[in-house]
Amino acid sequence: MGRISFLIERCNRCKMHLELCVCAHIPIVDVATKVVLVMHKREVVKVSATGPLALECLPNSELHVHGHRNHPVHLGHLLTPQRRVLCLFPRPGAQILDDAFVSADPRPVTLIVPDGNWGQASRMSRRIPGMKDAINVILPKGQPTGWGLRHESHEDGLATFEAISRALGIIESPDAQKSMDALFALMVQRTHRLRGNKQG
Questions:
Q1: For a surface tag, which of 10, 31, 154, 193 has the fewest beta carbons within 10 Å of its beta carbon?
Q2: CA distance 179 to 22
Q3: Which of 38, 121, 77 lies closest to 85, judged by CA?
Q4: Is the pLDDT of residue 2 over 60?
Q5: Is residue 6 predicted with pLDDT exceeding 70?
Q6: Tally of domains in the chain
Q7: What are the CA-CA distances from residue 56 to residues 13, 93, 142, 146, 182 (Å)?
Q8: Angle 87-174-182 from CA coordinates, rounded to 5°
Q9: Contact 50, 13 (CB under 8 A)
Q10: Residue 146 contacts residue 182 (beta carbons within 8 Å)
């Protein structure tokens, strides 16, 4: 990306350059699943971070920032008998988030999603109270990421937005995923256009 693109004013909500703002296309996806995004403090400042835009679609969601010594993240309050608490991260023993897994427990889901590089996310999933006690799940194998703007540490790596959208497609409905995927596709298209890539 050229230097000048960093100087162009961005939308406070979607973080896109103002002329490419996607806010008018953000759907409201009203689901029973509560999505809790835990971002490392170094991830929050990156304009390529997609997780916050996913939360803009989800009224029933929370954002927590990890890494500030004086304000540690504690998610123990999420562990209630009324909800099934899952952490979307491939720790050893993680179960596949598929229809069989979802149908085995009728309780509504709280889905915790760690967001950072591989090392940051791994440490968060092991150390943060509430997150380390959640049931770890992974997505079934699917289409490769459509983001393409950041190097993924693993072959099956996805943008955080994609991971949340696909998880909701399984837990909630294909319609929930479809609504979010349309916004993600628009964001990708406009970002590539800005960078002069053929995808846009």
A1: 154
A2: 14
A3: 77
A4: no
A5: no
A6: 1
A7: 8, 31, 24, 20, 14
A8: 95
A9: no
A10: no
Evaluate whether 130 touches 74 at the Cβ level (below 8 Å).
Answer: yes
Domain that holds residue 151: 3-195
Whether 39 is covered by a domain: the verdict is yes
Residue for token pair 């909500």: 13
3-state secondary structure of 39: strand
Residue 40 CA to residue 45 CA, distance in Å, equals 9
Contact 111, 58 (CB under 8 A): no
Residue 199 in tokens:
């995808």
Q: Is 80 inside a domain boundary?
A: yes
In this predicted structure, the answer to whether residue 133 has a pLDDT above a threshold of 70 is: yes
Q: Is residue 73 in some structural domain?
A: yes
Asked, for residue 200, whether it belongs to a domain, the answer is no
**Rounded (5°) CA angle 15-19-25:** 65
User: By three-state DSSP, how is residue 109 classified?
Assistant: strand
**pLDDT, position 125:** 94
**DSSP, res 78:** G
Q: CA–CA separation, 123 vs 11, rounded Å? A: 31
